[in-house]
Amino acid sequence: MVERIYIGVAWPYANGSLHLGQIAGANLPADIFARYHRIKGNEVVMVSGSDIHGTPTTIKAEQEGVSPGEIASKYQQEFLDCWQKLGITFDLYTTTGTGNHADVTQDLFLKLLEKDYLYKHTVSQAYCPRCQRYLPDRYIEGTCPYCHSPNARGDQCEDCGKPLDAPELIGARCRICGTAPEYRDSEHFFFKLSAFRDRLLEWVTKQTHWRSNVLNFTRRFLEEGLIDRAITRDIDWGVPVPVEGFENKRIYVWFEAVIGYLSATKEWAKLQGTPEKWRDFWMDDKTKSYYFIGKDNIVFHTIIWPAMLMGYGDLILPYDVPSNEFLGIEGRKISTSRNWAVWLPDYLERYDPDPLRYYLSINMPETSDTDFSWREFIRRNNDELVATYGNLVNRVLTFTYRNFDGCVPQAGELDENSRSLLKQAEDTLDRTGELLSLCHFRETMRTAMSLAQETNRYLDEKAPWKIIKEDKQAAADSLYVAISVLSCLRTVLSPFLPFSSQKLHEYLGFEGDVEADGWKLRTPLPGQKMLEPKPLFTKLDPKLAEEEAGRLGQSR
Ligand SMILES: [Zn+2]
Ligand SMILES: [Zn+2]
Fold first, then answer.
1. Would the pTM count as exceeding 0.90?
2. Which of 15, 316, 507, 539 is the S-S candidate for 56 at Cβ 3.0 to 4.6 Å?
3. What's the 3-state SS for 234-302?
């Protein structure tokens, strides 16, 4: 049965380069998941884009003395380049700056207004008398009223994760000049989030398949009660408010950016030449929609966006929100402002994509925070990717290629050990498929690697390189079995390590794309012509760890 899978991935702000925390948190798991479902033959759409209306983009533009649009298009280009190099296969990676996104946002706004889920309310708005401008939430800093972190922003406290309203901050100040803001009256639209609490609670309680951190966080949040929030603000950068008298205001980015999940699907459908196709992914309740995000974004995806969807009506709610915890760097929390981060473009300039995909998969922050260290990265590359998997591939393929005229050998009758290893390969395919469908990525990778280890043990015992002179058939048997396992690993690992899996696919003598073979054990035919193999991975000098770690915290 073909399943239909919608995959939404967190929208990064277009204000700076991507770093490994974002990749481990959202993009890589989403891509692995999308690739798996495509291989299975399921109908998949994976979309995301850059959030260009967020204040981080306007702040960056002000710092550099250019327009926010210029900053946004610079980073959009860089992100697209990174996705291509890292092999993140979006069906569409767009931005919130398109006319389509503005249309879809305004449609949602008007529908909620019509259904009485929006109302006007006058609020006192922060205004900096020195800068002579209204201050968006992120332009205000102060102490968090909940956890007393001294550097909370006016929209959210990064330390405790609570969304905030700027007036709640203790000792609020303008982030540009440090002056305490004044408050002036201004009329805004509010979203009746509070009206959805009971419906959300009832819905969330049924989501027992969610990760416990996501479920517990959401439930706690709902139990504390929901507060209506302003969805327009005094600023000139963003999607216009489609109501008379609001020409100088814009739709608030927290409300607007999540609509990107829907607008991007519509844009994708149009680009495909099937403009109505988005409905399959949004209106058919057999479609499963997944949202891959970091834990700081949970509330937007399990409460706010579902409430907006409930209010709009006819659109499906998230099926799962497999939010990841955080990836630290060298034992410390990532801080982009202090340059305590590994930037994706820098990594991709110096190293291959698959070793990073491997390390972030086997070390994915699925259930608790994990850490990236250069020493560990190099150790895992050398001891696991190269020594366990790469070496297995290399010794089997090179030896077979040289001794069997570059062809897959013909096996005779297989012994118990050989049959049991083939059985393990089949079981691995089933087991990893099951794990992947449940978004257990780390466990999938471990399961695949243990098949590689087992095959190394099998070959050490069979030692085809020793016995080939006395018993060529026995050598052919064990190499045939090993090649069959490699063919299995080629499939199981292709969502994780797409570049090396494609190479292995070709070395084994298969044509086309590795994904096209489906999630099945396809054994190369005896006599199948192989391609001359080269090592899949490269050993890295451990000295690089020090050099790389030395760049952290330095100016880039
Ligand atoms: Zn806090
Ligand atoms: Zn100011």
1. yes
2. 15
3. CCCCCCECCCCCCCCCEECHHHHHHHHHHHHHHHHHHHCCCCCCHHHHHHCCCCEEEEECEHHHHHHHH
